[in-house]
Specification:
6-stranded mixed beta sheet; 8-stranded mixed beta sheet; 295 residues; globular; 28% strand; 22% helix; Metallo-beta-lactamase, Chain A; 18 strands
Amino acid sequence: MKLFPNRLCWGHLYYVMAECQPFARADFGAPTLPLFISFNFWLNACMTIHLLNCFTCNARIPSKMKTGMLCLLVETDQGPVLVDTGLGTRDYSDPTWFTNFFRIITVMPFDVSEAAVRQIQKLGYKPEDIQHIILTHMHFDHCGGLPDFPHAKVHVHKREYEAFTDKKILHWDEYAYIPRYIAHQPEFSLYDNANEKWYDFAAIRLPFEPEMYFIPLHGHSRGHCGVAIKVENGWFFHAGDAGAVYNNETPTWLIKLVLGPHDQRLRQFMRAHPEVLVTNSHMVPEFFVQHKVIR
């Protein structure tokens, strides 16, 4: 397993695990499947997670710091489920003030083909096929694409929804909450009862198969959550913007200031459970070339 160091880019900490081998997918062969096989077993065998770069954002100084925003398209019992959206198509034709601000302080290819709706179409899906979107949090680069999927139900932690809608700026990064992203009034499913366990983390079961959980990791935003997904040979854990676990260069105090208090705990978890594949929201370009799917 080869790791790339994390980078700090204008208040966003970007990090990556670059050569994690995808979980193997057994070739069961349709003719040999027993008739009594369970639906869940079949679903887990066939489930695919597509790894999409939905927002490229590179540092101006140093120019070698290049990152992409990781979104997931998870095949589930309720159809394809999107985890985070990146920027939406309107952000390219009519950017918000915050997107324009980031275009000044960072280097963006600003290519509308990176929008999640364009990428799922390349995979053979239509926008209306996406009936559910899970958000780790609601900063501009994580929910800007919501209007491209107007019929999708949005799953998010209750505290995050309240932070987005209460019009109170309690921290500088809450300027990244852009009201127009929910102007189409999507249906929300809100979660706040972490009454289950995933490993040693408090967890909230999400209503999908394969087994999926919100992992509350508040700090980077008021209701930030990671997402754990059961795969055939273990677990995939998308920790979002909750830590900088591969960065041994940036001071601990700066990581805590930007991303919240969970970095050390996430590092300990990864040492104790190397069988769990962990990703974060902002990954180096090589990651997306090497890892297009997890099965």
